[in-house]
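Key result, reporting period 2: structure in, sequence out.
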């Protein structure tokens, strides 16, 4: 009897091991398939259309001052785009605060072109129309100029350090009806929802992952999403109130994830499911 029980235990253990191995193999095969799917889509990535529109808007004279955005200072000097995206968010002396790419672009639209700041912030969440769509296009264009470069966010100014700490606390803060946090999905290695990999954003997730992949084109809804939109949608999925556009919360999270991604290569504009 003891021998038969022991044998049954061996068979059960073997079956469980085989099952786990089979599931793992199936999961890896599915991930390989998704990677190939994304690779095929990348050849005709619609994000290129947003990039082209963004370049036109960048050079076009618009607004009450009839001026272009070509003298916008994104941290590298007026008009310098290369390398700007991979060092944002950062502290700007002229505004006295830490800004991400989108809020800095709005600042330039106000100071250079004469647009109303209140109107731009009101329009920004509408990513598919009006100045909201224009902001998405310019964000895509500017970010693309740093493609292939590696993230290197500054932590020299006190406000940059403070924003990192705030972003870290927000990342681990649980809330909402399901008691979720950013870390619930992105705080461990090997996480996954269905077939979707969930990178660990508490450390460098690798090239083209996390902040190094946004802005990105979402195939599922035919939209171009910036980091502000991505973060707001994460809050929505937590069943938590979405932050206002350009809030300190989203910028702080951008600082936290950006600093953690130091050395990761940007593949913007990426393409997502």
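The corresponding designed sequence is given below.
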């Amino acid at each position: 009897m003891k021998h038969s029980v022991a044998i049954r235990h061996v068979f059960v253990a073997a079956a469980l091991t085989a099952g786990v191995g089979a599931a793992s193999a199936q999961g890896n095969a599915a991930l390989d398939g998704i990677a190939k799917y994304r690779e095929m889509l990348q050849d005709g990535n619609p994000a290129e259309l947003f990039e082209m529109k963004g370049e036109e808007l960048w050079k076009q004279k618009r607004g009450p001052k009839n001026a272009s955005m070509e003298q916008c200072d994104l941290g590298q000097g007026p008009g310098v785009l290369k390398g700007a995206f991979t060092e944002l968010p950062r502290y700007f002396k002229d505004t006295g605060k830490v800004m991400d790419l989108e809020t800095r672009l709005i600042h330039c639209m106000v100071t250079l072109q004469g647009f109303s700041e209140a109107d731009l912030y009101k329009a920004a969440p509408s990513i598919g129309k009006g100045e909201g769509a224009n902001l998405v296009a310019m964000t895509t264009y500017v970010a693309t100029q740093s493609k292939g470069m590696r993230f290197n966010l500054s932590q020299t100014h006190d406000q940059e350090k403070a924003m990192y700490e705030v972003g870290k606390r927000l990342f681990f803060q649980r809330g909402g009806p399901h008691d979720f946090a950013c870390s619930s999905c992105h705080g461990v290695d090997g996480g996954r929802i269905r077939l979707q990999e969930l990178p660990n954003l508490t450390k460098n997730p690798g090239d083209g992952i996390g902040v190094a992949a946004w802005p990105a084109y979402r195939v599922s809804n035919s939209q171009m999403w910036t980091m502000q939109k991505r973060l707001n949608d994460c809050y929505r999925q937590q069943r938590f109130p979405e932050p206002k556009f350009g809030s300190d919360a989203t910028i702080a999270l951008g600082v936290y994830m950006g600093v953690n991604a130091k050395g990761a290569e940007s593949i913007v504009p990426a393409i997502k499911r």
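The chain has two domains: 1-43, 47-272. The first helix runs from residue 2 to 42. This case is discussed further under Risks and Mitigation.
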